[in-house]
């Protein structure tokens, strides 16, 4: 992992077109501004990992008819 | 074109119903092309099936069958990605799963947002909302029938109709 220290309002650029700026620092919370091209997703890690796990578990379908027989 | 589904066998589709997910779906980012299948005329659950991976499929449903308290906000970036200027033109679906005891769960935290006209989709994670990624369904609650009909007509003729019988 590359570790850099930035002050308020300073930025880092990743590759050619992804920019991360320190917008504010309040207590233990750092607000980051991210500029990235459309199509490059930016995610909060722990939520993203949770969604990824949910998707993997949902795609593991034993028998699709279990759903279709739930009916009303 | 033909593609193979390990659960449904060989399927033949018109390429115009293929929906592109430019960012893939989290956990399966390499696969970008899907079709929606209606099986045996079921109007509650649909299959979102990869055309690139025979084993990859999700059972999806329309969230308003199960909860009326659901509102989605979409960022400007996502509007641009989905080529949409009006959120109401999107088809909103949620991925479902069933546990060993046949309890049904829907992912309200990350709905699938689909522009059927432009054939673009994305699973949008609602970071700022407190919805559950595994909301347990106790009962159904149908929203206004008229509303539902409008939303479901968005997909008419843009999906694969599959009947086993």
Mind explaining what this structure looks like?
The complex is a heterodimer of chains A (72) and B (165). With 72 residues, chain A is an alpha+beta fold. Chain A has helices spanning 45-59, 65-68, and strands spanning 11-14, 18-26, 29-35. Chain A has a three-stranded antiparallel β-sheet with strand order 1-2-3, with no helix packed on it. Chain A is elongated. The model of chain A has no long low-confidence stretch (mean pLDDT 91). Chain B is mostly beta strands. Chain B is 9% helix and 32% strand. Chain B has helices spanning 76-81, 145-153; strands spanning 2-5, 9-12, 19-20, 33-39, 45-50, 57-61, 91-98, 104-106, 112-115, 120-123, 135-136, 160-162. In chain B, the strands form two sheets. In chain B, strands 3, 4, 5, 6, 7, 8, 9, 10, 11 and 12 form a ten-stranded mixed β-sheet that branches. A two-stranded antiparallel sheet of chain B has the order 1-2. Chain A binds chain B through residues 38-39, 41, 43-44, 47-48, 50-59, 61, 64, 66-68, 70-72, and chain B through 7, 22-23, 25-28, 39-40, 42, 44-45, 47, 56-59, 77, 80-81, 95-98, 102, 104, 107, 109-110, 123, 125, 127, 133-134, 140.
Summarize the structure.
Chain A is an alpha+beta fold. In chain A, 26% of the residues lie in helices and 28% in strands. Chain A contains 2 helices and 3 strands; from the N terminus they run βββαα.
Task: Describe the structure using short key phrases.
heterodimer; A: 72 residues; three-stranded antiparallel β-sheet; 2 helices; 28% strand; elongated; B: 165 residues; ten-stranded mixed β-sheet; two-stranded antiparallel ribbon; 12 strands; 9% helix; globular
